[in-house]
Design brief:
This protein has 11 helices and 6 strands. It has about 280 residues and is α+β, with helices and mostly antiparallel strands. The protein folds into 2 domains: about 130 residues, no CATH class; about 110 residues, Alpha-Beta Complex (FdhE-like fold). It has a 6-stranded mixed beta sheet with strand order 3-2-1-6-5-4. About 35% of the residues are buried. The chain binds zinc ion (2 copies).
Amino acid sequence: MKTKTPVDLPEGYLDFYKNLESWQNQQQIKLKKAYAPAPVDVVKIMDHSKRSVMQSVDFELDTQMFQEVYLELLKFLEEARPDTADQIEIIRSSSEQFAFEALPVRVLEGDGGYFASLAQKHNLAEELLIFTVDHALRPFLRLWAAPYRTAFTEAGFEVWDFAAVCPFCATKSNFSRIRVTDGRRFMFCDRCFTEWETPNVYCIHCGNANPYSISFLTVEGFPAYQAYICAECKGYSKSFDERQKAIRIDPFITNLETIYLDMMAQEKGYTSHEGS
Ligand SMILES: [Zn+2]
Ligand SMILES: [Zn+2]
């Protein structure tokens, strides 16, 4: 089904991500069979260490399994994106020399230098290389984070006050939803699918909670899709107000289909504070 958005996205763009998400779900179901969740009190970790759970707890990653999922992802990409098949083939043949045990940490830490030199060494497309490692890791991250999902949403913002950072995997987020059931606002991590609460009138970047300096941008006809803008730090973040449509959305896809909100906010001089 084609989703209507104010700005046309490239042909097949959303379908590709929807298929990728389904592929990751399938991988997660397979991995689950050999997985026992670690008994971790995530609220205690968030509250006391002020560090993400991934920075505090050592989640076991079977390197062999990760490599298998990685190669499966290359197969998926070859079919889903035939235009990248040549590049994928080069990545596949070089991957025999990858240090698979090091890749997850490098991607989570956003270690651009590591991937730049790896790409250079094997003559690989750097962005595609990062994309493959990042997306092969996601089924593992989602599997690890899933048992604690309720604890995260119930913990509340008094416990975790780094609104723009995922309390599980420390990935930066710039997307939230206003929950249809009770109007509470939850940030969303597209890597591990963790959600965590943040106040409704609140800038996730600088903590500004003054209703006079926080407002919304929307496009006519699409009132549920909003960009919060902050006059204090010139930051913006995107949100979907589920109450306006009385539906529960897929935040992963909604974040992607609202690129027009990013463009609009950035044109007006606002920033997602990416990388800061
Ligand atoms: Zn996360
Ligand atoms: Zn701000």
